[in-house]
Amino acid sequence: MELTKSEMEIMDVLWGKQAPLSRADLLEHGEEKSWKDSSVHILLNGLLQKGVIREAGFVRRSKTYGRTFVPTLTREEYYAATIFSHRYKPELEGLFSALLSRPEVTRETLDHLQNMVLQRRQEL
């Protein structure tokens, strides 16, 4: 599943706030948005159909109630799903090699990854 630029902007707000947000909250917190305020409901319905968000409840805003939304997956889970949803999937070893060669990878990150690999090996 691929998200549009506007859908990604909404997801970034939801991932960043880590709390259920209403349409009004999204309009308030969407600092760098390419979408119009009037189209946010269309974007939310698209995200609901794609299954990347779900309704979390309702919130009262003045005299009316509005739905609140939360992501159904983390940012990392989305990107992992995106990588493997393409027709030409990368080789897992090559993908890990490319990620590990990034300058953002620290010794601490490698230690954490090593523990994750050992835990996954035990599960298998």
What's the alpha carbon Rg, rounded to whole Å? 18 Å
- The side-by-side strand order for the widest beta sheet comes to 1-3-2
Let me know the number of strands.
Answer: 3
Uncertain residue segments: none
Termini Cα gap? 28 Å
> Strand content of the residues, in percent?
15-25%
CATH architectural group of the largest domain: Orthogonal Bundle
Largest sheet: 3 strands, antiparallel
Description:
The protein has 124 residues and is of the alpha+beta class. It has two domains: 5-71, Arc Repressor Mutant, subunit A, CATH 1.10.10.10; 75-123, no CATH class. It is built from six helices and three strands. It has a three-stranded antiparallel sheet. The radius of gyration is 18 Å and the shape is elongated. The two termini are 28 Å apart. 8% of the residues are buried. The mean pLDDT is 87.
